[in-house]
């Protein structure tokens, strides 16, 4: 079945620095990817998404990069702030042959921002 | 607040008891999802509805679990004869069905503790 893995379970950065969180997936048929942010005691919050026909998408202070060749996804956060401290999950829609409804989540990377 | 609403936020029960959780999705969303999340893990898909039809159920959804969405609006998730292994955060999400995209918006979850 499909699997999603984060490269690092924890990441610590200095306030103002850029953060990069990486994610790998196994199924080349996956056609849609999402990053979520989850703060303690809250549900996952949508950050940004990208379709498989794109390599890069930018939002406010965030950029998602998709490398389909090596099946790798990354989230870049510019000028990281203390409010960015949370657990970040990558998730994907399995694509052809898989479920058309659910998302498959990775285990998450805990981002800690030092003031 | 027009986000996804879940009740109760916390539920403590004794093993063997039945529990029921409620989810009110974003009003115009036709899809509703249930996920389970344990400590240190990403959400795991349980089931989803499109309007009132339950379209998919995960293998995680044992016979003790049942979900309904009778009028295509709110949904309930019932767990019968709870076991300690059912202790987890139960998350509800909703989305608008759209080709190639599936931005799911999550509620804050119901945390279940089975003693």
Helicity range of chain A: under 10%
**Helical percent range of chain B?**
under 10%
- Please count the beta strands of chain A (DSSP E, at least 2 residues each): 11
What amount of the residues of chain B lies in strands? over 45%
Radius of gyration of chain B: 13 Å
Helical run tally of chain A: 0
Which structural class is indicated by helix and strand composition of chain B?
Answer: mainly beta
**What is the number of helical segments of chain B per DSSP (H or I, 4+ residues)?**
0
- What is the average per-residue confidence, as pLDDT of chain B, rounded to a whole number? 93
Mean pLDDT of chain A: 89
**H and E string of chain A:** EEEEEEEEEEE
Multimerization status: heterodimer
Spatial extent as radius of gyration of chain A? 14 Å
Give the H and E element order of chain B. Answer: EEEEEEEEEEE
Taking the alpha carbons of the first and last residues of chain B, their distance comes to: 33 Å
Largest sheet of chain A: 6 strands, mixed
